[in-house]
Design goal:
7 strands, 5 helices, 179 residues, globular, seven-stranded mixed β-sheet, alpha+beta
Length: 179
């Protein structure tokens, strides 16, 4: 990526305060793979209140210059999302991210977001490997995942989708982003 470096900060999602913003993001056609296109505002509030109360699932807003710029969720794959679908290892963390639709796309923005999310996850020395399970049809995110070091393992069937189970170790991430 050329040009200026993008810097992001993170804060926990406030389910009530952030629900209207998140609703506008997750119901947009660009967010089809987030699977909340038909959600009402109350559905979004409820979903993020459940996440806020869940010790194994966390939602964060990524901020750029103090303004919400993207959403990321992390989860313990031994307890959420992938339970029983693969052999979870100590140090595994699951991750989702969403960049909202915009009328003024910025080249390199989404790659900067996933890079920042991964860097933040690997700041925790207990995190050894990041796990993702995007829809097999989401080729755009597969390319982004590969750009930060993810290696696909296999397709799996989740209740809501056929997913591409992929992993990225700290070493794979560092090699990908310094190449």
């Amino acid at each position: 990526m050329t040009g200026t470096t993008m810097t992001f900060t993170f804060r926990p999602v406030d389910p009530l305060t952030d629900a209207e913003l998140l609703h506008s993001w997750v119901t947009h056609p660009k967010a089809a793979f987030w699977m909340m296109r038909d959600a009402r505002l109350e559905d979004v509030e409820r979903a993020y209140m459940e996440i806020a109360a869940d010790e194994h699932h966390h939602a964060l807003l990524g901020l750029r210059d103090g303004t919400p710029a993207f959403l990321t969720e992390t989860y313990d794959p031994a307890h959420r999302e992938l339970t029983g679908l693969y052999e979870a290892r100590p140090g595994d963390v699951g991750m989702h991210f969403l960049t909202p639709a915009t009328d003024t796309p910025e080249h390199g923005f989404t790659r900067a977001v996933i890079t920042a999310v991964m860097a933040r996850l690997f700041e925790d020395p207990a995190v050894r490997r990041v796990v993702v399970e995007p829809d097999v049809r989401n080729t755009a995110v597969h390319a982004l995942n590969a750009a930060v070091g993810f290696v696909p393992e296999r397709e799996i069937d989740k209740p809501e989708k056929r997913a591409l189970l992929s992993f990225c170790t700290r070493e794979q991430f560092e090699k990908a982003v310094t190449a």
